[in-house]
Specification:
Distance between the termini: 74 Å
Strand content: 15-25%
CATH architecture: Sandwich
Number of strands: 15
CATH superfamily: q2cbj1_9rhob like domain
Radius of gyration: 19 Å
Shape: globular
CATH class: Mainly Beta
Bound molecules: 2-oxoglutaric acid
Helix content: 25-40%
Largest sheet: 7 strands, mixed
Structural class: alpha+beta
Strand order of the largest sheet: 1-10-5-12-2-14-15
Order of helices and strands: HHEHHHEEEEEEEEEEEEEEH
Length: 298
């Protein structure tokens, strides 16, 4: 009888393990090091399709996304159905769920695009610095590569274990080439010998903790480096600030109602989507006083 029960329990845990995206070892590593990389999501063909949809839009506007006005690099999933689908990708959501639970919101999104030969870089920072979330440490960033993102292309680099330092002070060093809207930089000397590059092939993704120190150098490769940074939080996390912000429920249920819900785009860049995007960005950037998201003209 006892053996039967133990066998059932074993089957139950085996089934649970199968339903999960991350192994216990990966979850433990995330908590120890503050990141996981690489994890599979899109096939190479799907990643190419996403890139083609982005570049078709850029061609129609005559400029790269990062040089278009209107904070289009931010919360871009509110403007394009293909990105709205990407933030709901089952492989990404399953991995995020294994880290922060089943009820998930997309709190923010940034398109991280570096063209070969430009000077765009990202200074050492922690994502939580301007997010104003409470509790702060439940937020996870998934960085989905739409192209290869390799060391010579200025892939994201991280300082393993630095998330355990908690939130650090940041100062602002505004620099036109810095892709961070406020040019924020953590006040800490980073030991370069300990830095790890998060090399990704198109379609793969990485996950990093909100307090993990990370940065990236200019793209000295031959192709564009395009990544989608998706900020996920569990619905129990709120935002501290005078104005309610917006977010998108992408998995499970929201029993807390800390955010106004964002409408899903119905067609690429249509008027309704543009209005919702402008409102969401005004509230988000207004909450911490960021000045720009466009990349300065070369
Ligand atoms: O893509 C980059 O170079 C920086 C990414 C980043 O800062 C982030 O995903 O939080």
């Amino acid at each position: 009888m006892v053996v039967l029960h133990l066998n059932r329990l074993h089957d139950y845990y085996a089934a649970m393990e199968l339903a999960r995206a991350l192994s216990d070892e990966q979850v433990a590593r995330y908590h120890e090091e503050g990141f996981l990389c690489p994890l599979p999501a899109l096939s190479p063909a799907e990643a190419r399709d996403c890139r083609a949809m982005l570049e078709t839009f850029e061609a129609s506007e005559g400029r790269p996304l990062g040089r278009l006005p209107g904070q289009l690099r931010a919360k871009t999933h509110l403007l394009f159905p293909w990105l709205d689908r990407l933030v709901r990708h089952p492989a990404v959501l399953a991995a995020v769920e294994d880290l922060i639970g089943p009820d998930l919101l997309v709190y923010h999104l940034t398109m991280w695009i570096k063209d070969p030969g430009d000077d765009a870089f990202v200074s050492w920072h922690q994502d939580g610095t301007y997010f104003g979330l409470d509790p702060a440490d439940q937020h996870v960033t998934a960085w989905v590569a739409l192209t290869d993102s390799l060391p010579e292309m200025g892939c994201v680099t991280v300082l393993p274990g630095s998330h355990r330092l908690g939130q650090l002070r940041h100062s602002t060093h505004r620099d036109a080439a810095n892709l961070l809207s406020n040019g924020q930089e953590a006040e800490i000397d980073v030991d370069v010998a300990r830095v790890v590059p998060l090399a990704l092939r198109a379609g793969d993704f990485s996950l990093h903790h909100t307090h993990l120190l990370h940065s990236s150098a200019p793209n000295r490769g031959r192709d564009r480096r395009i990544g989608v940074g998706i900020s996920y939080i569990p619905t129990r996390v709120g935002h501290v600030g005078p104005r309610r912000l917006t977010a998108s429920l992408v998995r499970g249920q929201d029993r807390h109602g800390h955010f106004d819900s964002e409408p899903r785009p119905r067609a690429d860049f249509d008027a309704e989507a543009r209005a919702a995007h402008a409102e969401a960005c005004a509230r988000f950037f207004g909450s911490h006083g960021s000045v720009r998201t466009e990349v300065a003209e070369a």
